[in-house]
Amino acid sequence: MIVSRETLFQRAECRTRSVNTAAKLMSIRNGRKSKRTGDMSKRMLSSLNTGTIVMPQYMVERHLPGITPDQLSAAASRAKNVTAEMTRQGKPVRYLRSTFVPAEERSFCLFDASSERDVKEANERAEIPLVRITEVKHISADEVD
User: Fold this and answer.
1) What are the CB-based long-range contacts (under 8 Å, 24+) for 108-111?
2) pTM for the whole thing?
């Protein structure tokens, strides 16, 4: 998910999450990097020259024995709606897509979010079980030789 720099800072100023989050975002806004800002701030700082913020991506692994196609679609819809609501509330999270592996009864769902914690919250709100959440890197065929 790409969020404009202005939008991210407006949302951050409205959020009341924690002093640490505000400090991290302020150091990014001022072009400084604190030792406490971590990997996310490094990614965000590296994209400031383009005027956009690239959000980390997370893969959610699920074990869904006996799930029907209708139930799978309903879960995806809930994930999409919950993440849209969270974004409106100032927590930028976006459900991107799911891949279901019928033979293993497993699903892999991709999210854009500022943290693993936000992805976990989205899945809890949508009432979709999960096995684990892992930060992932996307590599497209267009990006390689």
Assistant:
1) 108/59, 108/60, 108/61, 108/62, 109/59, 109/60, 109/62, 109/76, 109/79, 110/57, 110/58, 110/59, 110/60, 110/136, 111/57, 111/58, 111/59, 111/60, 111/79, 111/83
2) 0.65
Closest CA relative to residue 36, chosen from 51, 52, 20? 20
Query: Tokens representing 123?
Result: 């899945």
DSSP assignment, residue 17? S
Number of Cβ within 10 Å of residue 32's Cβ equals 11
Q: Would you say residue 77 has pLDDT above 80?
A: yes
Which pLDDT tens digit goes with each residue over 31-60? Answer: 444 443 444 444 444 444 455 668 899 999
